[in-house]
Structures are given as C-alpha cells and as structure tokens.
Amino acid sequence: MEKPNKNMTRRDFLNQVGRLGGAVAVFGAMDTLGLFGTPTYAMKSDFNLPKKGDLPNGKNGKTIIILGAGIAGLCAAYEMSKVGYNCKILEARDRVGGRNWTVRPGTTETEIGGVSQTAQFARGEYFNAGPARIPQHHITMDYCRELGVPLEIFTNTNEHAYYYRENVGALANTKIRKQMIKADIRGQVSELLAKAVNQSALDSELSAEDKERILTYLRGEGGLNANYQYTGSSARGYDIFPAAGLEPGKVGDPYTLNQLLASGMPNSISGEYSFNQQPNMFQPVGGMDAIPKAFEEQLPGKITFGAEVKEIRQSPDGVKILYTGKGKGNGAGSGNLREITGDYCICTIPLPVLTKIPADFSSEMQRAIGSISYATTGKIGLQYKRRFWEEDERVYGGMTTTNLDINQIWYPSSGYGTQKGTVVGYYNFGNDAVALGDMSIAQRQAHALAQGVKIHGANYKKELEAGFSLAWHKIEYSEGGWANYSASQRQNEYVTLNKPDGRIHLAGEHLSYMTGWMSGAIESALIAVGTIHEEVMKSPSVAS
Amino acid sequence: MEKPNKNMTRRDFLNQVGRLGGAVAVFGAMDTLGLFGTPTYAMKSDFNLPKKGDLPNGKNGKTIIILGAGIAGLCAAYEMSKVGYNCKILEARDRVGGRNWTVRPGTTETEIGGVSQTAQFARGEYFNAGPARIPQHHITMDYCRELGVPLEIFTNTNEHAYYYRENVGALANTKIRKQMIKADIRGQVSELLAKAVNQSALDSELSAEDKERILTYLRGEGGLNANYQYTGSSARGYDIFPAAGLEPGKVGDPYTLNQLLASGMPNSISGEYSFNQQPNMFQPVGGMDAIPKAFEEQLPGKITFGAEVKEIRQSPDGVKILYTGKGKGNGAGSGNLREITGDYCICTIPLPVLTKIPADFSSEMQRAIGSISYATTGKIGLQYKRRFWEEDERVYGGMTTTNLDINQIWYPSSGYGTQKGTVVGYYNFGNDAVALGDMSIAQRQAHALAQGVKIHGANYKKELEAGFSLAWHKIEYSEGGWANYSASQRQNEYVTLNKPDGRIHLAGEHLSYMTGWMSGAIESALIAVGTIHEEVMKSPSVAS
C-alpha cells in the first residue's frame, strides 16, 4: 500500500473546502483509489495538524479556552497541548467524556425534571450509555492506537440473534433467528430471479454467458437445488443438528416468500451492511469511557470540573468566559462567578445548551445555534445474574431487532461464557424515546422487561438484578443525542456553524456529516485546531 | 425459554439412534422448535452422561484406557473421572491437544520426511495451527464455560477485507474490499429482479400485494433509487468519505453486473453465511490450546506423555495396550515396551495412524479404519513487526479471500491496535496443500510472501519478522487434517466405525458429521462415555 499522494490530497483539500478558508481535513487518497479501487478512509495523517517546533520554544503559544471535556474538547486540547499551546478546559460535569459515558456501579444521575437514580450494578458490570461502537474505518481507531486504549470486537451483527415483529403478518409474535430470515429471503428471491432468467424474461439485459453466470451465482447465494428451487439450506440452521454418531442432521422447511414479505423482517437486513454498521466494529475493553480517560491522562491540570459556563465573551484581542464552580475540581469556587481569558475559544457545548448561554456570537451564528434540533434517544442497561441468552439460547453477542418501542436488545460484547451480563434492553429514538423517557425509572424498567419477556420468556424478568435507564434529551449539559439537520439546514445553518465566529470556533459531532459518531467530534476538533493554528502561524507575533 | 421436554428428546433418541444400541446424544428440543421456530442447538445437557453417584462410592469404577490426549480423549477422561472411573490417557506427544495446537515462541516440529523448524515468534505472538474458530452453537462453548476458558470473537467475516482473484475477468489482479462486491452484486441483482417484477414477468408467482412488498424489499436490500436503479450505495463505501466540516462524502460508481459476474467474486459470498461460518464465532483468549490445557488441569496424573501405542489388544474381560515411552512424562520408560490394562478402551487415534497399529479389531472394523482418507491441509503463521493491514489499510481482523494457492489470508482477531501481529498467510487444502507442504520451510514462506505482496504490497515482505508453517498430512501422530468421507463411506464404513468393537470404542471428530470441528470430537467422546457407562451400569458387578 503506497502512501497517499500529498499533491493530490492537497488539491482535493483546496477544491473541496476552500470556502471555509481554514486548515481543514484532507481526504481521499485518490491515488490509492485509482490504484486499488479501495480508498483507505480518513486517517489522522490526512489532517493538517500542528507539528512540534511550529511554535519556536513554545514562547508564542497562545491560550486556548476549550468549553467541554467531551471527545471534541479533549482531542483539541490534546493536539494543541502537544505543540505548546496553553489549553484550559472548562467542564460542567465532574467527569470527562460528555455523551461518552459508561454507567458503572454507583453512577448517579438526576435528569432534567428531577428523576434520579443510582446504578446498583455488580462490580465489573457496566453499559455504554452514549457511543457504544466504533467502525473500523473511523479516525477514532487512530486515537485508540495512539493512546493505547485496548479494543475488542463490538458484535453489531449476530446471525443467531432474533427478529421479532409484533402484529405483522404470518410470522408475528415469534422470535426468529436472523440466519433463518436471511437464508430464506435470499433463497426465495434467488429462486424467483432464476425463474425470470430461465424464462428468458431478462434476455435483453443479460448475455448468454452472463445468464449462465448469474444462475451459478444464484444457486450458491440462494442455496438453490439443481432445479433452481429453494427448499431450505443449512445457512438457515437445522431442525435436527448434524451430530456425532449416525445423525447427519435435517434442515428445516423454509418460510414462503409470502410469509417473509408479509413479516417485514427482510427489510431490516440491509441496515446491518450500512457503511457505519458493517463488520468489524469495536469497543474499548472495559467501557467506552476508556477513550476520554486516556485523553484526560494526557492533560494533567488542564481540566476544571464542575465549571458551568455562564457567558461567552470575545473582543478582537481575545476571549473571556464567565463560569460558576460547584466547589469541586481544579480551581472552581463554589457557586461564585469566575472569569477566564484566552486568545481563542473552542466551544464544544451541544447546541441546545449553548443557545441558552449569553454569548458574543454574530446574529447569524446565534440564529443558527438556536435552530438545530437534537435527537431524542434513550437506553436502559439491565444486569442479569445469568447469561441465559448465551447458555440457553446460544446467542453470544449481537442484537435482536424488533418493531416494539424498545427497538433493539443488545447482548453484551464481552465476558462471553461468564456468569453475569448486562444487556441493553432498549435503544430507541424519536417518539418512542420521548414516551419511555417520560416514564418514571421504575416504569421504564417494568416496560422494558415486559417487552423483553415476549422474546426471551420469563427469565428476562426473573433473572434481573439491576437496571439503569436514561433519556438523553433529559440529561443536563447534553439535552439530546446528536444534532439532527434537515437538508436545508445542511445548506444554510450548518455552513454558518462551521465558520469561525471571531475568535470562537465550534467543534463537536454536530459540526460533521458523521453526527452521533465520535469520529465526527474528533474530525471537527482537528479542523478547529488546524484553523486556529494556521491563523496563529500567520500572525506577526510568531514570525521570528 | 422452556427447558427441552425430556419425553420428546428421549423419543427422538430412540427413533434416531436405536441402531447404535448405546447411549447417544439426544438432540432437538423439538418443543422449543415448535414454540419458537428456533432450535436451541446441541447442548451438553442433551447428552445422557454419567452422574455422580451412579457408581456407588466409586468402588465399581472401571479402568478406562484412553488413547490420545486430543479433545476427544481429554473430554472422555474428564467426564468419566468426574463420576469415579479410573481413567488413564496415553499420549504420544509431549503435550495435550492433538490437532488443537497453538504454535508459540520456541515451538519445534519435525514433519514426516524430516523437515524441521522452531518458531522464532516474539513473546506473546502465536497462531492456531489446527482448529481456530468456534461457532457459537457448538457444544465446545459449553466446555469453555464449564472450564472457565475466556473467549473472544473470532472475526471470520470482515467487510473491509478483500477479494482478490488472479487472471479472472475484468476485476482481476485487484484487491477489492468485500463491502464493495457485496453491495454491488446485491444492488445489480436487485435492480434486475425489480425490472422483471415491474415488467410483469413474474405475475404468476406474485400477488399484487407481494409485488409491492418485494419492490420495497429490493429497494432497501439493493440500495436502489426511486426508479429501482442501482447507482451505488454507501454500503459499498465511499470514494470521498463523509467528514467533519463541509464534506458530505461521495459514493463511488458501482461495478457493472457483467464485471461482477465475470470476476467470480460474488460466488464467494455465501460461504460466509454457511451454518458453521456465520457470526458469531469465537476463540479462546491467548490461543486455542487453552481448551486442552483446561481439561489437562482437571486430570492431574492421568496422562502419560511420550507414550507411542504399539499394540491394541482385547479379550472378553478387558483391554491391554502396549506402548513405548520416550523418557518423558509420567511413568513412560525410554523406549521400552510397556503394558497397561483396563476394562475398556476409548481410542481417539486418527485413522491414518491407527491403521498402522496392530490391533484386535474385527476384520470389518480393520478394513473400515484403513479405508478413510484424511484431508491434506496446511497453514503458515507470519509475524509482522507492525500491523500495516490495520494501520494503513483499515482492515481490523477478518480474512481476505483469493483464488491463489494460499487460498486465504487471516488477520489476527486479537491485539487490535497494538504493534506486532501474526497473520495466517495461507490456509489451504487438497493439491494446494500438498504442493506447499512438499516445499522446504524457506520455500513455503517465500511463496506465501510473494502471493501476499500481490495484495498488500511490499510491506507484506518488508515488515516480516518470523514464520512457521506446517502441512497437517505430514505431522506425526495426525497425518491429516480431518476425515474425508464419501457419501458411500458414510453409509458403510462410517457405520462400522461408530459401533463399539468389543471393549474398544472409537472417538474423535472422525466419528461425527462435524468432521474437522472440535464439537465433533467432543460429541463423539460423550457418546463413547455414555455407551460404556450404560454397559457398566447394566453389568452385574454394579448392582448392589
């Protein structure tokens, strides 16, 4: 694999992002594409990041005030501190990570509205309340490597997990292993297409040679017999399993095309191949918060916790932030209004929170900030005393896909074969998330259990030990899962949000086309870092 | 999930395996199937295993001589020792596991023919020369749970790994990410079928309602546009990736149906869904030999290493085994012929080895043993100083599928994001395995590297640190990968091999319909255990 051609990527950069007038991510490695047909994805090395020595002896290092110690803020501070910038992070919470939040034994949260709970999980049990999976092509992988965060597979797909759809078609109210639905729809659809091909219905589309070839493909892909009929295939699993001794096994009868189509289940399959969901995906060993914690270790003394931003001010010469402390953390007083000043500000505060903070933004920027709605989304972690899904049902990892308001059930991607395990009992969006979020903590859990019992039977309720639920739109300092842009907002408000506003640069997942992903936050932070650094380098005070 | 109905499984047992006249695996849990449409697979609890207390005070415990400390022999000894049988294992090698063999720093092997090598791997690097993956539905998972063997995901599928086919069609000699081929063939085939449906070519097959439904399915599955055309989809990956800032990304142009069919690549897809290959698959953390080692820990003093079986004798009253020691292990003399006697023998020696040992088998059994050929198969482990496949190419785990004689390249399923990594540079079969096996160690490695360079470029050679190759058909005491039965042999010789021959019971993967899998060895061992125990229980000396 050759390294990307730097001239090409620079040209792409100039063509694509000249509008921003800043130092922005450079993508493509188009020569690689040309050579292999396989782009190598965005990499850290594709960004125009400051290098050690850019700031002579560090003496011209400016002070950068970073609002928020989520992934974007931490990453910006990490890269800028490396080369000598004086970075100061204000963080409202008592922890790093922001929406990257791993709920562990003793985790306490009071939601907006006053609903409060403490996780009663057993030692070692946890669930990732925010981001929970990393596609292998995301730049997040580069930071895990650089920071030494150990990774393991996140099992986004598991053929042995189930589809379950309530009150839809002939297969309603029955959990069916994904392998069965996939094998059967592929088989039935392959049989159908083979029929059309063999009846010469597609002769205008296919050469004689391609007719033969597509029939060969369909026979393999669909598991068709020599007459191009689908009568079931081992890919769907067996009714009687091939065994030792004299048992060769027996494949079950397939579902009919009509049953499959009426069930709607096959329509869920393609989601598992989508660009950001296909294998392999990863998670840090022991919890997603290993990533912010690894950044934090690199930033000793630079983070002020419990610092709630009250005003964001700027002049042509610098920025000034007013904040209150909570009597915790590094230098924040208890409730007194404090002031911090710097040369630039990188503001990663989510827009629904930022819009309520008095700030010296242009009116265009202020309007843009106030116009973007955030996703409603919720999750529940359910700790079980026994992994019945593994032991009794042979479902090791992955997720069950339903049309219930719980949407999905996630089985843990670690600790396979051990005793306890923590399932994500719902991960839902939109109105479902609002409805469950409006319930009491006890009601949410009771509801999640009642839905899960439909799939897993009584064990789902009986073997529960502890639960912890949250509604992201009700979590203080976040107020939503991620930015939701309309197509029109992408053309207008989004462009405004991406422009530096004087000395203030916004960063976060909301400044990306990868909203809701840590990679969006990271890449956006790297753009802010690069843009500020470019400006600093151009300023006369640095010339020596 | 209800427990299997014991009456039903007993009926199945009687119906299916009465021919054997022994205590045999009971499968199906048919009530579960009836209830959910989802069989729960073979489980340890489905076998009629001896229970503690079956042998009163252990005083009637018979002596069981077990030949071979591979998975079958270890499992049989483990289950029988639990209830008071006196188990003695003779093992020709200096280690447990048999074909379950993890090559580590310092591993030395001299193949039949005299080729010799020692693994120069770095500390912590290894590869599994034999079995390397466990499907989640195999009974092997139950033993990992019971023995406390930690498991992690084996990445059998990875959409970012490649297809590579030499000299075939328009896409020849180009590595192409699997995601691209899969998305494009699904897209093109979906477009084709949608065309047939829309042209009413399949009206006799589909109701009006199902026509609408199948079009909806094809649009999603194929990533078709509103006109049912495939113009590429994000599932295939991007030419320019969606990024932070103002880059929404750009999907590349798809390959044509003709290109895809001519390449032959789509014909490789269905293998990834096959029953024993689909996600999720597992491996023990740190090497597959964790499984035999965990059994070994449960069998202190019961294994004689370096004991090469020379004769297998039996009478109506018992069995007698003659063997030579190698001056190592527990009680074996150095080269002197030794004798051990017992009540029963469980013989797990692979048939190509067993056929050469003088034994008191019936002539029918002796003929059957000599008639079964074993798979030729080979592997090479290649240790690299840097994981360029991860770092440069964003391939984290999984395997590249080729039409070269190396067949496959496996990327490591652990240590993601770390420095060094050990790739399996070939895993091949049949004539390819014979040809590479006939080379010198140096030639094998040079050949594997030359082939891999075609896919990964110069790094594949440049960054290599150490290699270790093997040809299973040339490994002493194994002489092949697994039993290969013809359909006719399954009807004849296989039935003979499954019958106890006097006091000798064969066990191993070759006594199963899961040849080559550890689950076949385990289930076969459990059948031998159950059959012997049933006979012992019926014998007058046990009645008290």
Automatic annotation (TrEMBL), chains A, B:
TM helices/strands, residue ranges: 20-43
PROSITE patterns named among the record's database cross-references: TAT
Assigned keywords, A-Z: Membrane, Transmembrane, Transmembrane helix
Record carries keyword rRNA-binding: no
Highest taxon of source: Bacteria
Signal peptide positions on this chain: none
Keyword Transmembrane helix: yes
SUPFAM superfamilies hit by this protein: FAD-linked reductases, C-terminal domain, FAD/NAD(P)-binding domain
Gene3D superfamilies in alphabetical order: 1.20.1440.240, 3.90.660.10, FAD/NAD(P)-binding domain
Occurrences of domain Amine oxidase (ranges): 71-531
Name of the featured protein: Flavin monoamine oxidase family protein
Provenance organism: Alkalihalobacterium chitinilyticum
